C-alpha cells in the first residue's frame, strides 16, 4: 500500500497545563525521541508525533498497514537491522480515517488532561514556600498515565542508572522483543513495548545481559515470568486506582465529560466501570485466575503487592503506583528526592544533608513520604515530580538566573533553597594593606524582596586611614 502522510491535528492546551519539553524528559517515560522540533513515540499500535506552541498541542499518528502485531525473535531483529530494506517501512504506514483515529482520546488519557494543573500548582504553592519558589520555572509538569507493565520494566531498569541509559535499554527492549515494526518516522523504526509473555521466554535473561542490562536482566526476566505465568490475567490492572482508567479498558470519546472537565484539581475523577469489566472478562478467560476482588484496591495494597516482584523495592513500587497505576498520593523517593528532603525540609539533620546519596532506612522512607502527603495532599506525587525535575542537572539553568540575581551574597545565603529569614555569617577580607593602614568596617542590614520572599543581606563599607602599621581582618557577624 502506498504511503500516505499522517494528518496533523490540534488539541487546545496551554503551556501552563502541559509542557511536553519538560514532561517528556523528566524521568517518567523513556521512549520519546525528539527530532528537530517534534517528539515521537510508539503508543498502542501507532507512532505519535507531537509539537507544541503556546496555545495548542499539535499531533499526528502514523499507523502500520496491518493492525495485527506479533512478537518476533531477536534473531529476526538482528537480520532486519542488517538489511537495508528496513528503510522501506515508511511505505507500510497508512493514514487512518478520522472517525477511526482515537489518538486525541489517547493523548487526553496519556497526559491526564482531566486534571487542572494550574489549580494544583496554586494549592501546593499556598501550602509550601519551597514549592512556590521553584514552580514558576517549571510550569506544565504533568504525571503521565502510562501502561503499568512498561512503567514497571522501565523503573526496574532505573536501578543505579541515569535517564539516558534507561532510555537506551527501553529502546533495545522494543527493538528486540517489540514485534513487527509499526512505521519508520524521522529515521527511526518504532515498535510497541514488549509484553510480559515476550520477555518471559527462555534465553531472555542471557540475551539482555549481552545487550548491556547487567544484573537488571535477571530482574526483568523473572518479573516477566511471574506476571505472565504465575499471576492471574489482568493482575496489574487489578492494582490500578479505579478513578484512573487504563487505556484499552474502555474507549471514551473526546467529548466525554471525564476527559473534557478541567474543574477537577485535587480530587480524582469519578470512577468508571471499564476497569472492573476488563478485569472480569480477563479473569473469566483465564484457567489459573482467582475470582475478581470484591474490595476495591488502594494505594497501600498496590504498593505492597508490587514489591513481591524481583527487582522492585519501595522507590520502584512508588514510581509504578504513581505513573502506571494512577495513585496520585504515591511519592517516589530516590537520591534526588532525598537531597531535597534533607536540604529543603530538614529531614535527617545536617549530617544527612551533607552525605549526598546516603541510603534511607525504610522508616525514614515512610516518614518522608507521609510528610509530603500531608503537606501537598492527595496528588502529592504530582508535586514531587515538579521538585524532582527542578533538581535535575539538565534543568539547572532555569534556576541559575534566580540564584544569581539580587544582592551579591555568600553561597547558600538567602538563595532559592534556603529557609526564610535565615541570615548567615559574612566574612569580610579587606584588600591587601600597606604597612601604615587600618581598615574600618561598617555594616548596614539591607532587606531585599526576591521571588516573593524576604532576604536579609549585609552591606559592607570599607574605609582606609593611615594610622598604624598593623594589618587586620575582622569577622563581622551579620546583625551582630
From TrEMBL:
Family matches, as Gene3D superfamilies: 3.30.310.40, Helix-hairpin-Helix base-excision DNA repair enzymes (C-terminal), Hypothetical protein, domain 2
Keyword Protease: no
InterPro entries membership: DNA_glycosylase, HhH-GPD_domain, HhH_base_excis_C, OGG_N, Oxidative_DNA_repair_enzyme
Catalysed reaction equations from the record: 2'-deoxyribonucleotide-(2'-deoxyribose 5'-phosphate)-2'-deoxyribonucleotide-DNA = a 3'-end 2'-deoxyribonucleotide-(2,3-dehydro-2,3-deoxyribose 5'-phosphate)-DNA + a 5'-end 5'-phospho-2'-deoxyribonucleoside-DNA + H(+)
Single GO term (MF): 8-oxo-7,8-dihydroguanine DNA N-glycosylase activity
One Pfam family in the UniProt entry: HhH-GPD
Gene Ontology cellular component annotations, sorted alphabetically: nucleus
Compositionally biased residues, Basic and acidic residues: 274-283
Region (Disordered) residue spans: 247-297
Keyword field: DNA damage, DNA repair, Glycosidase, Hydrolase, Lyase, Multifunctional enzyme, Nucleus
Gene Ontology biological process terms in this record: base-excision repair, AP site formation; nucleotide-excision repair
Keyword Ubl conjugation: no
CDD domains to which the protein is assigned, alphabetical: ENDO3c (cd00056)
SMART domains, sorted: ENDO3c
Coiled-coil region(s): none
EC number(s) stated in the UniProt entry for this protein: 4.2.99.18
Biased composition (Low complexity): 252-266, 286-297
Record domain HhH-GPD: where: 157-385
Subcellular location(s) per record: Nucleus
Domain of life: Eukaryota
Enzyme kind, highest EC tier: lyase
Family: Belongs to the type-1 OGG1 family.
Protein name: DNA-(apurinic or apyrimidinic site) lyase
Organism encoding this protein: Pyricularia oryzae (strain Y34) (Rice blast fungus)
Amino acid at each position: 500500500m502506498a504511503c500516505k502522510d499522517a494528518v496533523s491535528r490540534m488539541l487546545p492546551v496551554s503551556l501552563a497545563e502541559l509542557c511536553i519539553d519538560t514532561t517528556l524528559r523528566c524521568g517518567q517515560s523513556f521512549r520519546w525521541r525528539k527530532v528537530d522540533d517534534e517528539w515521537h513515540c510508539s503508543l498502542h499500535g501507532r507512532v505519535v508525533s507531537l509539537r507544541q506552541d503556546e496555545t495548542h498541542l499539535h499531533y499526528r499518528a502514523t499507523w502500520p498497514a496491518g493492525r495485527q502485531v506479533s512478537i518476533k525473535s531477536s534473531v529476526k531483529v538482528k537480520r532486519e537491522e542488517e538489511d537495508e530494506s528496513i528503510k522501506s517501512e515508511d511505505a507500510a504506514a497508512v493514514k487512518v480515517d478520522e472517525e477511526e483515529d482515537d489518538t486525541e482520546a489517547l493523548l487526553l488519557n496519556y497526559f491526564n488532561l482531566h486534571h487542572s494543573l494550574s489549580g494544583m500548582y496554586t494549592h501546593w504553592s499556598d501550602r509550601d514556600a519551597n514549592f512556590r519558589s521553584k514552580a514558576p520555572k517549571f510550569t506544565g509538569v504533568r504525571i503521565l498515565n502510562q501502561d503499568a507493565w512498561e512503567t514497571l520494566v522501565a523503573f526496574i531498569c532505573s536501578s543505579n542508572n541515569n535517564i539516558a541509559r534507561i532510555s537506551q535499554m527501553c529502546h533495545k527492549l522494543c527493538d528486540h522483543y517489540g514485534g513487527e515494526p509499526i512505521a519508520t518516522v524521522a529515521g527511526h523504526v518504532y515498535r510497541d513495548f514488549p509484553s510480559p509473555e515476550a520477555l518471559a521466554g527462555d534465553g531472555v535473561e542471557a540475551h539482555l545481559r549481552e545487550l548491556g542490562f547487567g544484573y537488571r536482566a535477571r530482574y526483568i526476566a523473572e518479573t516477566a515470568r511471574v506476571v505472565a505465568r504465575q499471576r492471574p490475567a489482568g493482575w496489574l490492572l487489578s492494582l490500578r486506582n479505579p478513578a484512573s482508567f487504563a487505556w484499552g479498558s474502555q474507549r471514551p470519546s473526546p467529548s466525554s465529560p471525564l476527559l473534557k472537565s478541567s474543574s477537577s484539581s485535587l480530587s480524582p475523577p469519578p470512577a468508571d466501570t471499564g476497569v472492573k469489566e476488563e478485569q472480569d472478562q480477563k479473569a473469566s478467560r483465564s484457567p489459573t485466575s482467582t475470582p475478581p476482588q470484591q474490595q476495591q484496591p488502594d494505594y497501600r495494597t498496590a504498593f505492597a503487592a508490587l514489591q513481591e516482584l524481583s527487582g522492585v523495592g519501595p522507590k520502584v513500587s512508588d514510581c509504578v503506583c504513581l505513573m502506571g497505576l494512577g495513585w496520585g498520593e504515591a511519592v517516589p523517593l530516590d537520591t534526588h528526592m532525598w537531597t531535597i528532603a534533607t536540604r529543603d525540609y530538614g529531614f535527617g539533620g545536617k549530617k544527612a544533608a551533607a552525605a549526598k546519596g546516603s541510603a534511607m532506612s525504610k522508616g525514614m522512607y515512610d516518614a518522608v513520604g507521609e510528610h509530603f502527603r500531608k503537606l501537598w495532599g492527595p496528588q502529592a506525587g504530582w508535586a514531587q515530580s515538579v521538585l524532582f525535575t527542578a533538581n535535575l542537572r539538565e534543568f539547572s539553568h532555569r534556576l541559575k538566573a534566580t540564584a544569581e540575581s539580587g544582592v551579591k551574597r555568600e553561597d547558600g545565603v538567602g538563595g532559592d533553597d534556603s529557609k526564610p529569614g535565615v541570615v548567615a555569617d559574612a566574612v569580610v577580607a579587606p584588600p591587601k594593606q600597606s604597612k601604615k593602614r587600618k581598615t574600618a568596617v561598617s555594616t548596614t542590614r539591607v532587606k531585599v524582596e526576591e521571588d516573593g520572599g524576604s532576604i536579609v543581606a549585609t552591606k559592607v563599607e570599607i574605609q582606609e586611614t593611615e594610622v598604624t602599621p598593623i594589618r587586620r581582618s575582622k569577622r563581622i557577624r551579620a546583625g551582630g
